[in-house]
């Protein structure tokens, strides 16, 4: 499964991509904002991540610049904590962008591409969250149309070694409208 946006190509991650993954994510400023990536992030971590099988129903994509194939990050869908919402066609959006590409709109563009894929996969509800000390990610989620749920929950940050408060967001897709969308 591949997806081309204006500036990006999203594609499956292949084992030989481990160096590109390592080059983008082996940065404490990136990893500390992720739930499952450890710190320090090393070659073994990158090789294991790149070797994971591709799941077409919960895809994770390598985000590369279409112009020169530079690895700028990853974006994808994963399971939602709590099986009750997952059973209703929900998924969780996750992403990371390498530091040299911050502030250039790549997270929003990659997120928008993943949401298009989620629609094709028949997903009706997408969840996401950001650690409270990472407001830039909250801005990305709002640009993508996510609405804050008003809930803050503790999420594990492997890199930090403890749970961190995270703002919860939700986006309803195709034909399902939230109260705010109906009022508009």
UniProtKB/TrEMBL annotation:
One of its GO terms (molecular function) is acyltransferase activity, transferring groups other than amino-acyl groups. The lineage of its organism: Bacteria, Pseudomonadati, Pseudomonadota, Alphaproteobacteria, Sphingomonadales. This is GNAT family acetyltransferase. InterPro entries: Acyl_CoA_acyltransferase, GNAT_dom, N-acetyltransferase. It holds the Pfam family Acetyltransf_3. It comes from Erythrobacter litoralis. Residues 8-174 form the N-acetyltransferase domain. The keyword Acyltransferase applies. Keywords: Acyltransferase, Transferase. Belongs to the acetyltransferase family. RimJ subfamily. It comes from the Bacteria. Transmembrane segments: none annotated. The keyword Acyltransferase applies.
């Amino acid at each position: 499964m591949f997806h081309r946006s204006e500036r990006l190509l999203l594609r499956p991650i292949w084992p030989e991509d481990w160096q590109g993954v390592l080059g983008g994510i082996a940065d404490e400023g990136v990893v500390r904002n992720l739930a499952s990536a450890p710190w320090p992030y090393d070659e073994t971590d990158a090789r294991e991540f790149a070797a994971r099988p591709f799941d077409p129903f919960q895809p994770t994509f390598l985000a590369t610049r279409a112009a020169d194939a530079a690895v700028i990050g990853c974006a994808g869908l994963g399971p939602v904590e709590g099986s009750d919402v997952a059973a209703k066609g929900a998924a969780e959006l996750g992403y990371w962008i390498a530091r040299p590409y911050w502030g250039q709109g790549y997270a929003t563009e990659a997120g928008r591409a993943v949401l298009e894929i989620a629609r094709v996969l028949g997903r009706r509800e997408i969840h996401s969250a950001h650690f409270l000390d990472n407001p830039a990610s909250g801005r990305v989620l709002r640009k993508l149309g996510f609405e804050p749920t008003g809930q803050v929950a503790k999420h594990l940050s492997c890199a930090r070694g403890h749970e961190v408060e995270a703002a919860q967001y939700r986006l309803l897709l195709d034909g399902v409208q939230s109260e705010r969308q109906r009022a508009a």
